[in-house]
Recover the amino acids of this structure.
């Protein structure tokens, strides 16, 4: 299997005045195309920081990050944001949908940013909304949808570009366990059918157990705690 992401001794520290906080303390991780990875760990352990570095939203203090074999560390912000749009999909704890836009418009957004034709974007977004169980709700705005339904739209939006890698930061965080299970069972099936890789930060151990590998982030290090591959 081809590995598409590789972190090599990644370190990250934040400086607040004279105080230096070491958050990531030498992370090595290789992710294969189509592989599903869960990351668990206590609050403040650096899980979000790690996802931001993988998703090219932040840079490591030291170490290397390869995407499809190319080291990203020294690339310009412009090249990094181009690659980010082509390569990654993001799902957050709160849906981050645009309130004025319908479910369909929110889902189409990443395609329009890429200059896809409106007609094509609409048809792809329609299909994805159906596959997350939102057929008939396309023209509803976020305030007309439940929390679980909004998170389904967020999932559809993240998958609409068929990204190579999806990064999900506690995406079930504000859903009740039953709703979380329903939304994310579909999400994981879609991931598998698109052969997208997934890195999901979650406190939901049941969900984590459905992934190929589970890691715990603790004291700045990643420890593999289960591996089915
Ligand atoms: N931009 C920042 N500036 C300073 N400190 C930060 C910044 N981002 C995160 N941190 C610190 O890094 C640590 C890890 O944060 P985070 O990655 O958000 O953890 P988690 O997602 O596991 O809860 C925390 O101590 C946090 O205060
Ligand atoms: Mg976090």
């Amino acid at each position: 299997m081809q590995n598409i992401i590789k972190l090599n001794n990644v370190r990250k520290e934040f400086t607040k005045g004279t105080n230096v906080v070491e958050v990531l303390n030498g992370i090595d991780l290789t992710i294969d195309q189509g592989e599903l990875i869960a990351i668990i760990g206590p609050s403040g352990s650096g899980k979000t920081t790690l996802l931001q570095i993988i998703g090219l939203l932040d840079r490591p203090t030291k170490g290397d990050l390869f995407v499809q074999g190319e080291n990203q560390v020294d690339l310009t912000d412009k090249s990094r944001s181009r690659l980010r749009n082509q390569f990654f999909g993001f799902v957050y704890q709160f849906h981050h949908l645009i309130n004025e836009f319908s479910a369909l418009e929110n889902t189409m957004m990443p395609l329009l940013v890429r200059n896809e034709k409106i007609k094509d974007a609409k048809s792809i977004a329609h299909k994805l909304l159906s596959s997350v169980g939102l057929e008939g709700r396309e023209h509803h705005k976020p305030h007309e949808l439940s929390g679980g339904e909004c998170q389904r739209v967020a999932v559809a939006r993240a998958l609409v570009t068929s990204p190579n890698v999806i990064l999900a930061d506690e995406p079930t965080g504000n859903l009740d366990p039953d709703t979380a299970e329903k939304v994310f069972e579909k999400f994981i099936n879609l991931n598998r059918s698109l052969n997208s890789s997934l890195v999901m930060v979650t406190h939901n151990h049941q969900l984590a157990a459905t992934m190929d590998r589970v890691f715990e982030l603790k004291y700045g290090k990643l420890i593999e705690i289960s591996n089915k591959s």
In short: The mean pLDDT is 93. Residues 41 and 217 are 5 Å apart (CA to CA). The helical segments are 47-54, 77-87, 103-113, 118-131, 147-159, 177-194, 205-208.
